[in-house]
């Protein structure tokens, strides 16, 4: 009798819990916070490109010098990836990401004061150093995003989750480019650094109040936790710190990652995909102003269409990838198909060399960035394949390869412009990278699956 009552009561509780669970979507609030932070992240990266034309005239900087200043962010961003990933694995995303947001925002504010230094050499050095520090501070951001998504989302939702935070890079332009264009034209170029940096400092403290691991979140529903855990979410992420500290990462582990053909193919493709990103973040506004004769304010609004298309493409790519998984297609097929189709569309950037009207330019740029967004599933793939013991570090290594593009693209395009006086060669250079990414996923990556580290026994 008692057993029967217990079973009946348990069934009732289970029924209520399931009912309640449909209304508990804590993981989506976490994703919204990551989206906001990533949009701010890319807004801060784009401050320099939006200020570039008036700043270079004001300070007397040529295209090669600007190319090197553009690249300063990525030198540090690349250097900081592996240490940033290691810190995330050791101390967790909540703590490390807070310091990341706070510091990159503070250094962004400081950039707005460099013109007061007076001496041109000192100004150039300070600009390079501060952008370098912004890059160093931002280095844990995307490995942190990957760690949080791997913790909060089951595999079948991970493509969409990663696509959402990754597409924030385009939405950042939709939100911030017209606003920054207005600040530059109506106030002065320094103001965008003060406003964007100040906003980031405020948001860093909001992060501390919002982010927890699934097992520690004060509002997470038990059924939601069960759904995440049973679906492959690493719900203890960032909480088993003592265990992480005991098992130290060895160079042999990193060597294993670099020896994997699958991972190497993913890393190379990410470098190529990011080439399109960094063109957009650095030289694109300059291209619109100098090559296509737009004003700064027009360029700010013109950048919205490609960014919005990139955002829509990014969301669609993730949704379609996850839909294919739910249709029982293989993980490999579900991830590769949007990437390959997206990269094929991205090559349309080269068509801009053969059209003259501003409308046609914006159309083909929008098509290219829709494709780039649609195919930007690299972080979803990393959440699928990174070894469980090294999510942060694997993400750091992935981002090291990817953001080497931020060093190469600004400098190479700076030299192309200096040599030819035209963006034609630059657009071809960027378009070729989309093809290399496509071929990398077709011929190098192979089957997409979680990488297993080979461990050696220790006493």
Automatic annotation (TrEMBL):
It comes from Acinetobacter pragensis. GO terms for cellular component: plasma membrane. This is Galactonate transporter. The chain crosses the membrane at residues 26-43, 63-84, 96-116, 122-142, 163-185, 191-212, 262-284, 296-316, 337-355, 361-381, 393-417, 423-444. One of its GO terms (molecular function) is transmembrane transporter activity. Belongs to the major facilitator superfamily. Phthalate permease family. It comes from the Bacteria. It is found in: Cell membrane. Its main location: membrane.
């Amino acid at each position: 009798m008692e057993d029967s009552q217990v079973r009946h009561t348990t069934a009732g509780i289970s029924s209520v819990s399931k009912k309640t669970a449909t209304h508990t979507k804590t993981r989506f609030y976490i994703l919204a916070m990551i989206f906001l932070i990533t949009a701010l992240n890319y807004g801060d990266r784009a401050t320099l490109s939006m200020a570039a034309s008036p700043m270079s005239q004001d300070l007397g900087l040529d295209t090669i010098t600007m190319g090197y200043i553009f690249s300063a962010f990525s030198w540090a961003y690349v250097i900081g990836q592996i240490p940033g990933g290691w810190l995330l694995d050791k101390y967790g995303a909540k703590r490390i990401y807070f310091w990341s947001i706070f510091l990159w925002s503070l250094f962004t504010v400081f950039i707005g004061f460099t013109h007061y230094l007076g001496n041109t050499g000192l100004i150039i050095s300070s600009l390079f150093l501060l952008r370098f520090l912004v890059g160093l501070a931002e280095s844990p951001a995307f490995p942190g995003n990957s760690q949080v998504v791997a913790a909060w989302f089951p595999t079948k939702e991970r493509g969409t989750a990663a696509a959402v935070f990754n597409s924030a890079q385009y939405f950042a332009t939709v939100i911030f480019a017209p606003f920054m264009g207005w600040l530059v034209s109506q106030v002065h170029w320094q103001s965008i650094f003060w406003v964007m940096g100040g906003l980031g400092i405020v948001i860093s403290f909001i992060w501390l109040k919002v982010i927890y691991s699934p097992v520690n979140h004060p509002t997470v529903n038990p059924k939601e936790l069960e759904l995440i855990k049973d679906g492959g979410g690493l719900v203890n992420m960032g909480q088993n710190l003592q265990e992480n500290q005991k098992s130290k990462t060895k160079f042999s582990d990193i060597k294993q990652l670099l020896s994997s053909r699958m991972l190497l193919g993913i890393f190379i493709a990410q470098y190529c995909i990011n080439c399109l990103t960094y063109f957009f973040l650095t030289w694109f506004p300059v291209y619109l102003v100098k090559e296509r004769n737009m004003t700064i304010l027009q360029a700010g609004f013109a950048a919205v269409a490609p960014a919005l298309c990139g955002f829509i493409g990014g969301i669609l790519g993730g949704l379609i990838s996850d839909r294919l998984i739910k249709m029982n297609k293989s993980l490999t097929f579900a991830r590769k198909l949007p990437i390959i189709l997206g990269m094929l569309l991205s090559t349309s950037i080269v068509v801009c060399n053969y059209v003259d009207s501003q409308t046609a330019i914006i159309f083909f740029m929008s098509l290219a960035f829709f494709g780039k967004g649609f195919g930007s599933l690299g972080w979803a793939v990393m959440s699928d394949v990174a070894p469980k013991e090294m999510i942060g570090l694997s993400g750091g290594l992935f981002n090291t390869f990817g953001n080497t593009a931020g060093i190469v693209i600004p400098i190479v395009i700076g030299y192309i412009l200096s040599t030819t006086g035209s963006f034609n060669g630059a657009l071809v250079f960027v378009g070729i990278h989309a093809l290399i990414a496509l071929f990398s996923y077709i011929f190098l990556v192979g089957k997409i699956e979680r990488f297993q580290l080979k461990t050696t026994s220790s006493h």
